[in-house]
Request: fold
Amino acid sequence: MRIIAPMMMLLILLSPLSGCVGDDSSEELDTVVPIPDLTAPNQHGENVTLSEFRGTMLVILFNAADWCGYCNDEANRTEELLQSMEGLDDRYTVSFVELLNDNAEGTKIASQEDAMNWSEYSNNSHSVLHGQATRDYIEETFDREDIPGFPSYLIVDLDGVARSWVVGINEPIVAEDVQVQYDAYLQDLNQN
Reply:
């Protein structure tokens, strides 16, 4: 009986982390079809469409909110990450979009207020998409690509094709990951 109470408390405390990533990995993708499109509002209430970023190397951060400590860490480093991606290689332009799954407590779909608070808290300039369409897109993408949880990055090439997933927190995405995928994109173009 003395063990049951502490174990129950531990279970209750850890349950909010169940959507956070426990597995760190990155995966090159073999698909050559563009990612499904998404149009959703950003933190300012403006509709953003992912296909508008074709012609750039698009990095999409699939993220939860405050309840996921790893997600906080990633959100807080995205502005610096974007600047390092933009400054690394002048052969391409980098675009960055974050898809926010839920509110700070993890109990509801992220609203515009949640997205604005998240953006301000993280001091980010990129679009933070939210709402039902965003939640549906995250769920469909995670199911299709067998992604274990948040935070996860998808690197998309100039033609809108997913090139690589970076999942997890021990080996987070770096600017060179985008450069590697751009070089692979060029190599694929030269072979065709």
Observations:
- Residues 34-191 form a domain with the Glutaredoxin fold (CATH 3.40.30.10).
- Residues 3-18 have pLDDT under 50 and may be disordered.
